[in-house]
Amino acid sequence: LQSLINELPIKTCLEIGSGEGYLVDDLIAIKPKIQIVGSDIDYSIVRHAKTSRLSAEWCVLNGDNLPFRGDAYDLILACEVLEHVKNPTNVLSELHRVCSKYIIISVPYEPIWRILNMVRLKYLKDFGNTPGHINHWSKNSIQNLVGQYLHTINMQTSFPWIFIQAIK
Known about the structure:
Blueprint: H1 2-5, E1 12-16, H2 22-30, E2 35-40, H3 43-52, E3 57-60, E4 73-79, H4 88-98, E5 99-108, H5 112-119, H6 139-147, E6 151-158, E7 161-167
Parallel strand pairs: 1-2, 1-4, 2-3, 4-5
Antiparallel strand pairs: 5-7, 6-7
């Protein structure tokens, strides 16, 4: 992730699905002057992140309907999000709308992700599917989805994840 962000000329960022805010910390370490908004759908997680990561603004939101004007953020991060959402096309459309320049997305690399879970003897009755994962992405499938809205400028595999850096 750091290599994808290092050289980007960005001043603002929205992270969708921030969870506890670990990527917020990483982003601030890379770009100390960035204005960042972290978000998640779970109020208790956002409340915790808000108290422990004061260098970002925090909000509870759903990626299907973002409460921001168009072109509001230089960078949108959506790491480990699209495998969880009912309609990834709607989410990507919203990310495209509020992004002015760049979007970075990561997803688990399928079917490798599920195979690794099974090797660890996890989620065997679900054939290695992590709870909450309702979408499964290969390089081609995530590239096809992103390509409907954005131009991919870099796609990398950081085993067992796929990262896509795209431009509006």
